[in-house]
Structure formats: structure tokens, C-alpha cells
Automatic annotation (TrEMBL):
Compartments it resides in: Cell outer membrane
UniProt feature coiled coil, ranges: none
Highest taxon of source: Bacteria
GO cellular component: cell outer membrane
Membrane-related topology note: Multi-pass membrane protein
Keyword entries, A-Z: Cell outer membrane, Ion transport, Iron, Iron transport, Membrane, Receptor, Signal, TonB box, Transmembrane, Transmembrane beta strand, Transport
Protein name: TonB-dependent receptor
Residues in TonB-dependent receptor plug domain copies: 121-235
Extent of the signal sequence: 1-24
Primary localization class, coarse: membrane
Residues covered by the TonB-dependent receptor-like beta-barrel domain: 332-887
Length: 940
């Protein structure tokens, strides 16, 4: 027994010693294709499930590995995943890997439009990502300008940084110029920038792009119906800088020139790193001074923002506190006059590249119609444009609760203010047009006789006319040798708007992971307390490329001189527009989603969302202020005789919109490099506040708006090869219950009104694609775009025949026409070269033909824009880049506003109208001309 025992112990000891001696370590290094170490790469060993992360030097260590054969998997955001088999014996193993860039980010984790983060390849959505590198290759023109790089996304940034349009897949009908983000959600870190929209109040007012943005994730349609608040058309999520394991950052100075030598200066910074004990911070922002791409006598944009986040990482997740302070002035360009319907060319001495037709800067004061008896007034200076302010703070938490439960909650409060002081409309108004004189004071009194026009700056008389002939059909006659440019004035309004909103929003999710299910439930809340005040006054300005303000008087011999304008050229104080409204908006949604694992390669994604939106508010009724001599009691001043003021009556609205949305998708992962997906979604779009604010002028708000229905189906493929990656999606989308009302002007009584709403339907079928090809080292080619067939399947427009009188009205039927402002072909093609310290790129952006209205009466021709850039790494920390946008000064037309007359709209330019008015002028929005930018970047 003793011998047997001793032999057994010796055997056990031998086995133990052999086992100990067979333990080994794995040491490795990971670099990119340029030989630079990659920090933060994740390494997983299977079947042991041991993990590691690379350090700043790109190295990793996994200790005490038993002898065996293993599969090692290496992943990193923005790079292709590596999977390899290794053999571990008695000796340590030294490994070296080179990770190739995932050019389409198909193996990058995305968080937008899905409830559980996963790679793009594994998702059943049409998703695109813009990296910080791609963002830095864009001229800092604004949010919409950047998003034109997203396949299938139509953007119109011809007016500048704001007053932009963004939409996808023909879901566009209510995305008007003044509510251009109607169907999509502009987000920062997963929550909307703004909860509400109405005329001239869209989320782009409160969003600026700088180095604090790490990447952009864009979802087109699909699951946005169940993952976003009232935004079934898509999500554009700007994601801020996250955890940095060591202090690092960028400081960047940009100096640009645009148009006819107008300057841009911009300073950006983004700095972040650890604070100790698993605390991390990021902070940054920008300041800019921009003279604009078109000619104005004032700075177009100035101001900036500051953003920060503080993150606490723990064993179960993270806590993040973040904030933003935005204080920024910008403006937007109005249209340019053109003639020749078949081949638009600039008219009246204007230029598609440089003309802005904005009123010049001056310091005026206009009585505040809300508080006339208190003597209140508002300052008015067109150089202010829109002054946007946003103070936002939020708290984001993600915690693993154990037993496969995950809780997330993101909450944000913001206080917003947007004050507009700018011009609206810039139409040609003949000196012989009675409308011109009626607009002075709503016809009270109607000025007849000798009208004198003087330059407000010099006081010099520019022209003197006799307008009494307009009643005899002979028109106005000059009384001296001096004339006004183009024998006309600019039909424009001094437009004052004051918008405020206090908003609170929250997104809460709770996720349970089971063997074959990832079930996510939660709720989204949004509350906005908002107000709107709009006041419009007529302004006398010359109709020429650089308008001058005019002081205008009526000087009939033997009669007192009547001032038709004040010393700044302002007339008909507050007599053109008056809207004073307030609203409380609540959005409450609950949702549930199940990602079902059918097999190792097939996942089914099913989600429901029930949403309730409540609009409660009021709108003041108004009437002209009546007093002999107007507000100042002086019979010799006509400019204050028609001020619109509240009557004390209000029209209230209190409506609820509730609907159930659905989205289901399936993903078949063929292998680690390829996947097929399909999805069907049914979403809804509740009306925005412009439904109440724009309509129901001095009448009861006796009905709620219609909820639009959006149906979408898509099927696509995603594929990754060594030197070629692509995604392609075939889609069908339908938009129903589209309420359409036109802005109209009745020259006989100076009435501005909206026509009765007509409800319509559109359908779009198309193919989106996105591809990257790198045939040889250092060269990369990118190609993305959309080919589509957009149709206005059922479409009617109310024709008011140019007057409030309904006896001559009719309804026009344009069913079966091509849906306007949706190109049949649109793409981006680019090439990039990068080696050692040099990078260079060339981009071609093509915009196909689009119709400018639903009657298909006017066609916006196709155009191309070429952008080039180059960069050089001067030292380890310092780099320089030069960017040129619109290299060849394309004169492409991005938008169309109809005939060049006060109160006209695009839908009025029917084929019949154009045939009857072949020589008429009209208003178009050209793309912005060449811009050159030099950037110096210091990174550390």
C-alpha cells in the first residue's frame, strides 16, 4: 500500500509540474497599415474567454495560458475585425497584427436607431457613418452641408447654415424651406436638439459643428419610426467625444476666403482625458467670424459654442454629465432673380454667385404691437440675422444590473431663444404697381402724387415720380432726370421674430438578455413650453444687387409733406404680419423591441411604439390700431397708421394625436464579411406647431391637423472584402395625408393668407448605395448615391386666383406628376490618396434634375460641384490642410420660389403660367460659390 501511495503521489506531482510548466503568456502588438500603434483594440481568446486591451503603444499581454489551440479575435472601432488560430505550448507566444481600416464602418458598433448597440453589418437598418476624418474634409458651412455626404440624403444648404432642408427617400412633402427638417430628427448624443418645429424655427438653428463631434451616425427611415420622437424619416445623430485614456486633444485655426474675397476666421478646440479614479472629461467648442459667401455690408455669422462632458466609469457601466452653451448670430440668403425658364440666367444685374439681396445694416426701432399703450418697441437691425441661444444640460447613465439586465437613461433640459431681425422676400415691385403704395399703410391713406425717394445714409434725392397715372393706366412718371435702378423697388419686409422654448426630454430603456432574445422596453418623454411672436413691416429699398434703404415722402405742391417711411426706410410699422402665440407640447411614447436569434446567422428584429402628442396653446386675434394720426397722433407720418395689435380675444387649441408604429427587420449574416437584411416599417408624423401658427388667422382653431402615415419597405446587402466594401438598399416609401397650403397675397386689400389645406399622397421607389474601393495601397475611391422614381400619386392644390375672394377659386389636380425637389439621380464620387505625411482628395457631387413644383412646370437643371483638398503633417503635432469647395464655381440651382412678385409661390408657376409669361422673371436659389479654407491643427 505504501508503494502504491507513493507512486500515485509521484504521478500526481508529475502531472501538476507538467501542467505548471505548460503555462505560457501571449504578448502582442497591433498597428494600422501605416505602422502606427493602435490603442484601445479589444482582444478576446476563445475558448478561455480571456480578454485584453492594447495600450497607447499598441501592445497587449494575456498571462497564464494553458497549452492548447485558441482562436484570437481582435476588434477596434473603424477597423476590420481579425480572427486567427494560434497554438500555445510551453513557451511564451509573441504575436503581431496589422489592422486594416473598415472603410464603410460595417464592423463598427453603432447606437443610433437601435435599442442594443451592434455592428452595422449585424443590424437590419440602412445606416451610414461619417468619421471625424470625413468631417474635417468639409468646409464649415453648416449641418446640412455636411449631411449631403450621406447616401440617399437630399440637402439644400443654398441659404447658408440655417433655413436648410434635409430629407430622404421622397419623404419630403411638408419639409418646406422654413421647416426643412420636418420628418427627420437632428440629434446630439441620442436626444433631439429641439422638440418642436414651426416656421423659421428648425433644429439647425441650435446646432453647430466643430471638433467636439467625434462622428455622425445617420439612419434613413426604417426603425426611426420606433426609435425617435415624431421623426419617421430618419435620424442624424452627432456623437460627442468619449473616454480618452490619456490627455489629448486638438487646437485648430481656420482662415477661409469665399465669394469675392469674403473672409472666414474660426478657432476650434477639443481637449479631454482622465481625471483619476475612473473619472474622465472632455471640453471644447469654437468661435467664428464669417463674412459669408455672398456680398452683404455686414458680417453674416459670428459667435460660437462651448460643450463639455464629465464621465464616471464603474464596474457596471458609466455615468455622464454633459452640457452646451450656444450663443451665435447668423443669417440666411434670400433668392436671386432669373429669366429664361428653359435656361435660367441672372436678371436685373444680379449674379448667381455674389448677390444676396439682403437689406443693409441700420439701427431702427419698430413699435411692439403687443404693448402699444406702454410705448414698447423692438430694435431692428438686419445685420443681426437670427440670434440663437441654447443652454442645455443633461445626464446619461448606463448600468448593468446583473442577471443580464441593462438600464439606460438619458435626460436633458434646454432653454432656447431665437430672435430674427432680417428681410423676408425680395421681389421685384414696379413703381407703377399699386401694391407698392398700398403697402405703405394698408391704404390709409393711399399716397397719390409726387413721391420722393432719398438715400437714408446721404439724404440725397435719388428719384421723384408722379404715381397718379397708375389709376389712368399710364403708370408712374419720373419728374426729374434721376431714376431708380430697374424702375422698381424691392418688395421686402422688415421681419421681426422672437421665439423661446424651455424643453425637457428623457429616454429610458431597460434591456433583458435571454438565450435567444434581447428584449428592450422603455419610454421617451418630451415637454416643450414655447412662444412665438412675429411682426412684419414694409421696408423701402432699391431693387439692385446691393440694396440701399430709401426714405420716402409724399410732397404734393401746396400740401404738407407726408412721411411714408421713417428715417431708416421702414414703413407700415407692424402692418404686414402679426402672430402672437404660445403652446405647451408634450410627447409621450412607450416602446418594446425584441431581437430574436433564429439561428447563429439569422436575427429577427421586431418593435412597437405607441406615441401620444399633445398640443395646447392659444393664438391672439388682432386688428389695426385705430387712432387719428396713427400711433404718434401726427397726420403727417403715414408709416405708423396700420400697426396690427391684439384685440384681447384669443383662439385656443388643445388637441391630442395618438398612434401606433411598427417596424420589423431581419438580418442574415452570411459570414463575417457579408449580410443580407430586410425591413418593413409603418410610422406616423403628427403636425408641427406651424399648423396652428400659420393657419387660422383671426378665426377659431376648430379642427386638429391630420397625422401623416409613412410606409416603408427595404431590402439590402452589406459586404466587406479585402479592398472593396459596399452596401446597397432597394426601398419603397409611401407618404399619405400630406396637408398642403400655399402662402398667398391679395394685392387689392393687402391681405396675406394661407389657402385651405389639401391632403395628398406620394410614393417613391429607389436604390441607395455606398461603396469603397482601395485597389492599391494609399489610394481609396468612394461612391455613394441614390437612383429613385418619386411620384405625386394623388395631389391637389388649392388655387386662390390671387385673391381672398373664394368665388373664383378652383382646385388643381396634379396626380401622377413627378414629386418636386427630389432628384432621380444624386451621387458623391471621391478619390483619396494618403501616404506618410501627405493626404489629398477630390470629390464630385452630382445633383440630378428636379422639378421646382408639383405641376412640373419648372425644371431645376442638374449640376455638379467639385471639392479638392490636401494636407501635410508638418511635425508629430502640427499639420496643415487646404480645402477648396465648388472648385469650378458651379452656378447650380438648389431651389425655386416661383414668379418674381410679392406673395408668389412655386406652385403658381404652372406650365400654363410659364407659356403665358415667357419673359417673366422668377426667383431661384443658386448654390454657394467657391470657398477656400486653410487649417492649422495642433494635436497632442
Amino acid at each position: 500500500m505504501n508503494k502504491i501511495t507513493v507512486l500515485f503521489l509521484i504521478t500526481i506531482a508529475s502531472v501538476f509540474c507538467n501542467t505548471v510548466s505548460s503555462q505560457a503568456n501571449i504578448n502582442g502588438a497591433i498597428k494600422d497599415t501605416d505602422g502606427n500603434p493602435l490603442q484601445g483594440a479589444n482582444i478576446q481568446l476563445s475558448p478561455s474567454n480571456q480578454t485584453a486591451t492594447t495600450s497607447a503603444d499598441g501592445v497587449f499581454n494575456i498571462l497564464n495560458i494553458s497549452s492548447n489551440n485558441y482562436t484570437i479575435t481582435i476588434s477596434h472601432l473603424g477597423y476590420k475585425t481579425i480572427s486567427d488560430t494560434i497554438k500555445v505550448a510551453q513557451n511564451d507566444v509573441t504575436l503581431s497584427f496589422t489592422m486594416e481600416e473598415d472603410l464603410l464602418h460595417l464592423q463598427t458598433i453603432v447606437v443610433t436607431g437601435i435599442f442594443d448597440p451592434r455592428t452595422q453589418l449585424e443590424s437590419s437598418t440602412s445606416m451610414s457613418t461619417l468619421s471625424s476624418k470625413a468631417i474635417q474634409q468639409e468646409y464649415p458651412q453648416g449641418t446640412a452641408s455636411l449631411l449631403q455626404n450621406i447616401p440617399g440624403t437630399f440637402t439644400d444648404a443654398s441659404a447658408g447654415e440655417v433655413f436648410t432642408k434635409v430629407y430622404t427617400r421622397g419623404i419630403s412633402a411638408s419639409a418646406e424651406d422654413d421647416t426643412g427638417w420636418y420628418y427627420v430628427s437632428l440629434q446630439e448624443d441620442g436626444l433631439p436638439v429641439s422638440l418642436v418645429q414651426h416656421s423659421y424655427y428648425s433644429p439647425d438653428l441650435f446646432h453647430r459643428l466643430d471638433l467636439t463631434t467625434q462622428k455622425v451616425e445617420a439612419l434613413r427611415g426604417g426603425s426611426s419610426s420606433i426609435t425617435a420622437l415624431n421623426a419617421p424619416g430618419g435620424i442624424y445623430n452627432f456623437i460627442s467625444q468619449g473616454i480618452r485614456n490619456k490627455f489629448s486633444g486638438n487646437i485648430q485655426f481656420s482662415n477661409g476666403f469665399q465669394g469675392e474675397g469674403n473672409a472666414l476666421y474660426k478657432f476650434d478646440a477639443s481637449i479631454g482625458g482622465p481625471l483619476g479614479n475612473n473619472w474622465f472629461i472632455n471640453a471644447g467648442g469654437h468661435y467664428r467670424h464669417d463674412d459669408g459667401a455672398r456680398n452683404t455690408d455686414f458680417t453674416l455669422s459670428k459667435g460660437g459654442q462651448f460643450k463639455f462632458n464629465v464621465i464616471k466609469r464603474n464596474a457596471f457601466g458609466y455615468l455622464k454629465f454633459y452640457g452646451k452653451i450656444l450663443d451665435d448670430y447668423t443669417n440666411r440668403y434670400t433668392g436671386v432673380a432669373a429669366t429664361n425658364w428653359d435656361n435660367p440666367t441672372p436678371a436685373f444685374g444680379q449674379d448667381f454667385g455674389s448677390t444676396s439681396l439682403l437689406m443693409p445694416s441700420f439701427n431702427g426701432r419698430i413699435p411692439d404691437g403687443r404693448n402699444l399703450t406702454q410705448g414698447a418697441s423692438n430694435s431692428f437691425d438686419p445685420s443681426q440675422g437670427v440670434h440663437a441661444k441654447d443652454l442645455a444640460f443633461g445626464f446619461d447613465i448606463s448600468q448593468n444590473l446583473g442577471n443580464n439586465w441593462l438600464l439606460k437613461n438619458n435626460i436633458k433640459f434646454s432653454a432656447k431663444d431665437a430672435n430674427w431681425q432680417t428681410s423676408i422676400s425680395n421681389a421685384f415691385v414696379s413703381l407703377s404697381d399699386p401694391t407698392l403704395y398700398y403697402l405703405v399703410s394698408n391704404g390709409n391713406p393711399f399716397p397719390v402724387g409726387q413721391i420722393v425717394f432719398r438715400d437714408t445714409n446721404s439724404g440725397n434725392e435719388l428719384a421723384r415720380i408722379d404715381n397718379s397715372g397708375i389709376f389712368a393706366g399710364t403708370g408712374s412718371q419720373y419728374l426729374t432726370g434721376n431714376t431708380l435702378p430697374n424702375d422698381a423697388l424691392m418688395g421686402t419686409s422688415a421681419w421681426y421674430k422672437d421665439n423661446t422654448a424651455d424643453e425637457w426630454m428623457n429616454q429610458f430603456t431597460l434591456q433583458k438578455t435571454l438565450e435567444n432574445h434581447d428584449i428592450t422596453g422603455g419610454f421617451a418623454l418630451g415637454f416643450s413650453d414655447t412662444s412665438l411672436f412675429t411682426q412684419g413691416s414694409f421696408a423701402f429699398a432699391t431693387y439692385e444687387p446691393n440694396p440701399r434703404m430709401l426714405q420716402v415722402t409724399l410732397e404734393n405742391p401746396g400740401d404738407p409733406v407726408i412721411a411714408l417711411s421713417d428715417s431708416n426706410g421702414l414703413s407700415n410699422y407692424g402692418g404686414l404680419f402679426f402672430v402672437n402665440s404660445r403652446a405647451k407640447v408634450s410627447q409621450v411614447a412607450t416602446f418594446i423591441n425584441d431581437r430574436l436569434k433564429v439561428s447563429n446567422n439569422v436575427h429577427l428584429d421586431l418593435g412597437l411604439r405607441y406615441e401620444t402628442i399633445k398640443h395646447k396653446g392659444s393664438k391672439d386675434r388682432f386688428a389695426p390700431f385705430t387712432q387719428n394720426g396713427g400711433l404718434d397722433g401726427n397726420d403727417n407720418t403715414a408709416y405708423d397708421n396700420g400697426i396690427l395689435a391684439p384685440t384681447g380675444e384669443q383662439d385656443n387649441f388643445n388637441y391630442n394625436y395618438s398612434y401606433l408604429s411598427f417596424s420589423g427587420g431581419i438580418n442574415y449574416k452570411i459570414d463575417d464579411e457579408a449580410a443580407l437584411f430586410a425591413r418593413f416599417s409603418q410610422g406616423h408624423k403628427a403636425p408641427e406647431l406651424n399648423y396652428y401658427f400659420n393657419n387660422f388667422s383671426n378665426v377659431p382653431i376648430n379642427k386638429k391637423g391630420e397625422v401623416q402615415e409613412i410606409n416603408q419597405a427595404e431590402i439590402g446587402v452589406k459586404y466587406i472584402l479585402k479592398d472593396f466594401s459596399f452596401t446597397s438598399t432597394l426601398f419603397w416609401s409611401q407618404l399619405k395625408n400630406i396637408g398642403i397650403a400655399n402662402f398667398e397675397f391679395d394685392g387689392s386689400n393687402n391681405s396675406i393668407f394661407y389657402t385651405p389645406i389639401q391632403f395628398n399622397t406620394s410614393r417613391t421607389i429607389g436604390l441607395e448605395w455606398q461603396s469603397v474601393y482601395s485597389p492599391v495601397q494609399n489610394f481609396t475611391f468612394r461612391f455613394n448615391g441614390i437612383l429613385q422614381n418619386p411620384k405625386a400619386t394623388e395631389w391637389k392644390v388649392y388655387d386662390a386666383a390671387g385673391s381672398v375672394d373664394t368665388s373664383d377659386d378652383s382646385i388643381l389636380d396634379f396626380s401622377g406628376k413627378t414629386l418636386p425637389f427630389n432628384p432621380k439621380l444624386m451621387f458623391n464620387l471621391s478619390s483619396e490618396y494618403q501616404k506618410d505625411r501627405i493626404i489629398a482628395f477630390l470629390k464630385w457631387q452630382f445633383m440630378g434634375n428636379r422639378y421646382g413644383n408639383v405641376s412640373n412646370g419648372f425644371n431645376l437643371p442638374a449640376y455638379s460641384i467639385f471639392n479638392v483638398g490636401a494636407g501635410y503633417q508638418i511635425s508629430k503635432n502640427l499639420s496643415a490642410d487646404i480645402l477648396v469647395t465648388n472648385l469650378f464655381n458651379s452656378e447650380g440651382l438648389a431651389n425655386f420660389f416661383g414668379a418674381n412678385s410679392f406673395g408668389a409661390n412655386a406652385n403658381g408657376a404652372t406650365p400654363e403660367f410659364i407659356a403665358a409669361n415667357p419673359d417673366a422673371s422668377f426667383v431661384v436659389f443658386p448654390v454657394l460659390r467657391r470657398r477656400v479654407l486653410l487649417k492649422l491643427n495642433y494635436s497632442f
